[in-house]
């Protein structure tokens, strides 16, 4: 498998809390995997471990046969906030990583043009960051991430701060880009609808500690209709799984052992 997580656990020293327990997952090259689960189940922690921004307490992670021991150019992260450089314009933000990676100037410009056109921002390439909308900022961040041509794209709720109309537009654009590039994507989202819309497989997590509860293959043809009966039925099924985990977590935290024994 392209990406392998073997028995990953994470305990934070400050709280002594086991955030993740025995997470094992295999991802094929070109797969689009979405991770959903209740708040606090460790979705973002898991993404940070794969990114190399943190290290697991136990277990191993490998990508394309190489162990993940820290951040690397083979993995690029796109966060909820676009995290753009405000003193640079749209084009300069995309060029920044390419320049740091040592690409020749002519090649930098060629790559930046390709991906800015792909995210439909070519005509805005000279705009200062403060003059573009939130959706355009996320498109810029996506172009910057794609331009680096990493082996794995890690996305942590990249559209959650945007309005619903913009979200629908960006979902369609991201799906189209994935169809063209077949980039391997690990995507964390709180939206079950979004997970079913994008994923080849949806990883459903439970919490306290964070574990994989279920992995659900999505076999609907693309593009997917979020109003189709089979789509809404699966959405309801997964939401029920997430809600059950969330309710159990609340009961464990606030009801105490006597209530749990009842």
TrEMBL record:
Keywords tagged on the record: ATP-binding, Nucleotide-binding, Transport
All residue ranges annotated as the ABC transporter domain in the record: 3-232
Single GO MF descriptor: ATP binding
Entry annotated with the keyword Nucleotide-binding: yes
PROSITE patterns: ABC_TRANSPORTER_2
Entry keyword annotation includes rRNA-binding: no
InterPro entries with a match to the protein in the record: AAA+_ATPase, ABC_transporter-like_ATP-bd, ABC_transporter_ATP-bind, P-loop_NTPase
Record CDD domains: ABC_NrtD_SsuB_transporters
Highest taxon of the lineage: Bacteria
PANTHER family, alphabetized: ALIPHATIC SULFONATES IMPORT ATP-BINDING PROTEIN SSUB (PTHR42788:SF13), TAURINE IMPORT ATP-BINDING PROTEIN-RELATED (PTHR42788)
Name of the protein: ABC transporter domain-containing protein
């Amino acid at each position: 498998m392209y990406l392998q997580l073997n028995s990953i656990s994470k305990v934070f020293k400050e709280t002594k809390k086991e955030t993740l327990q025995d997470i094992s997952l295999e991802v094929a090259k070109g797969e689009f995997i979405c991770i959903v689960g209740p708040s606090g189940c460790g979705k973002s922690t898991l993404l940070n471990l794969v990114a190399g921004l943190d290290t697991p307490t136990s277990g191993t992670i490998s990508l394309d046969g190489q162990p993940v021991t820290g951040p690397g150019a083979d993995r690029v992260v796109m966060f909820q906030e676009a995290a753009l450089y405000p003193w640079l314009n749209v084009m300069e933000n995309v060029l920044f990583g390419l320049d740091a990676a040592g690409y020749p100037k002519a090649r930098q410009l060629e790559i930046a043009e390709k991906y800015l056109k792909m995210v439909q921002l070519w005509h805005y390439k000279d705009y200062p960051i403060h003059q573009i909308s939130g959706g355009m900022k996320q498109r810029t961040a996506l172009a910057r991430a794609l331009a680096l041509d990493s082996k794995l794209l890690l996305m942590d709720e990249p559209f959650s701060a945007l309005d619903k109309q913009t979200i629908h537009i960006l979902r369609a654009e991201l799906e189209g880009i994935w169809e063209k590039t077949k980039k391997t994507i690990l995507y964390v989202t709180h939206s079950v609808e979004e997970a079913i819309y994008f994923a080849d497989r949806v990883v459903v997590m439970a919490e306290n500690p964070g574990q994989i509860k279920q992995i659900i293959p999505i076999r609907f043809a693309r593009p997917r209709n979020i109003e189709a009966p089979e789509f809404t039925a699966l959405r309801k099924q997964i939401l029920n799984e997430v809600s059950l985990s969330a309710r159990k977590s609340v009961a464990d935290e606030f009801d105490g052992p006597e209530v749990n024994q009842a």
